[in-house]
From TrEMBL:
It comes from Mycena maculata. Pfam families: FAD_binding_3 (PF01494). Keywords: FAD, Flavoprotein, Monooxygenase, Oxidoreductase. InterPro entries: FAD-bd, FAD-dep_Monooxygenase_BioMet, FAD/NAD-bd_sf. This is Salicylate hydroxylase. Belongs to the paxM FAD-dependent monooxygenase family. GO terms for molecular function: FAD binding; monooxygenase activity. The lineage of its organism: Eukaryota, Fungi, Dikarya, Basidiomycota, Agaricomycotina. The keyword Flavoprotein applies. Residues 10-376 form the FAD-binding domain.
Amino acid sequence: MTAKLGPTLRIAIVGAGMGGLATALALARQGFEHIDVYEAAADLGFVGAGIQVAPNLSRELQRLGAWEYMETDAVEMHTVSIRGGTTDEELANQSLAYIRERYGQPHRVAHRSALANALYEACKAAAPRVAFHFRTAVTDVDFDRHRIRVRGRDEAEPGHWIDVDVVFGADGVKSVVRKCMLARQGEEDDAQDTGQAAYRIMLRRGQLAHDPELLALLESNSTSRWIGAGRQIIAYPISGNTILNIATTQPDVNFAAAPTATWTTRADKSAMLAVYADFCPRVARLLRLVPAGEVCEWKLRVHRPLRTWVEGCVALVGDACHPTLPHLGQGAAQAIEDGAVLAVVMGKLTDVKDILAGLLVYEHLRKTRAERLVEEAAISGRTLLHADPEAQAARDAAFRRVSTGGPNPDKWVDRTVTDYVYGFDCVKVAEEQVAGLM
Ligand SMILES: Cc1cc2nc3c(=O)[nH]c(=O)nc-3n(C[C@H](O)[C@H](O)[C@H](O)COP(=O)(O)OP(=O)(O)OC[C@H]3O[C@@H](n4cnc5c(N)ncnc54)[C@H](O)[C@@H]3O)c2cc1C
């Protein structure tokens, strides 16, 4: 495709996370030729975790030509099993066959680095349209003169200004671009503690081989979730069933006790074992296998919904404007949908003076959906983590009714939610609606 502004428009993307990479790739495929991606980290960053690749995500990856780079890593999920954390009693076991039938793609999971690398490789294949600038942090945005300030590794360095026509802030939950935008709008940046943290762990086949019950988790193409008061653990195989990915959620104790600027840290294994000490023997065996130096903890933060994602020639993408709890497995998917829709809109512009109008169309097409999914993830989290015994009993009874067609309290596999989330083709809808909105 050749966007009218493709040969001339100078596009700056802040952040080479899932949203930034997808935005760069989608714009390159629309015919934009001058896309610069500024990434503070030295490379694609710490990505030692699994990620849900729901139908709405795989559909976009296929459309963007990134899928072929990660196809062999992805594992198709056939079932999801919910169990009591302390008892190991199976409360529900739901087949995911309906997902492929209903949405045209199966539900898959993959290594986060496979997803990031796939987007990156596809961007490189679009070179020289996309140029990456690693170790380059954006520190300021000048909304009046259309420029960004960047600096290299030396934090004492004042940095220098770069003139641009449009800026996409895909710099994650701690977004500097959002901060600048809110300051400009006279509002406060308000990243909020959720009081929750997450351990992310990976176990390789060799570490599980001696324990048939644990090995079965790697070989079963099933997602298993154990739930207990205030805590939950999810496990699924990734990387062609060679790695078992485990992610937990529990009350944030460690970050709250010792606040740091970073929200991801190597964690103490004995502290992790203590948090899950009352969980069943299977979970205990799993957690004990983790090498002491390989426990990583993430602090989970969100931000109140923003009034707008746009200011002048600047728009926000992904976690910068809709950071989410992980309970719906849609954070990266929504960041990538943002990039895909943004490119559709940008591709229709014929004059730079229409950039603001175009960015507002992007916001119109994306904001309601992304914010609803943030809310659904929060609701799902509250349900899964109930501490009150009566609420737990009601939830568990609901899980037991899933086999007879009842709604699933774990919303990422509840049909009403999956119809809304997985059944939605964001690019098709954008293509249909964009002309009427410009
Ligand atoms: C525990 C946990 C589990 C999750 N599981 C899933 C899941 O299964 N499925 C799913 O879809 N999502 C999941 N998510 C959410 C998902 O990881 C995020 O929603 C997604 O990564 C957001 O992408 P992003 O590009 O907006 O931000 P990020 O991935 O955070 O990328 C932002 C990038 O910007 C860079 N950056 C920051 N500031 C600057 C600056 N000033 N200048 C230049 N560069 C900068 C950062 O270094 C980073 O590379 C999970 C999140 C957590 C915490």
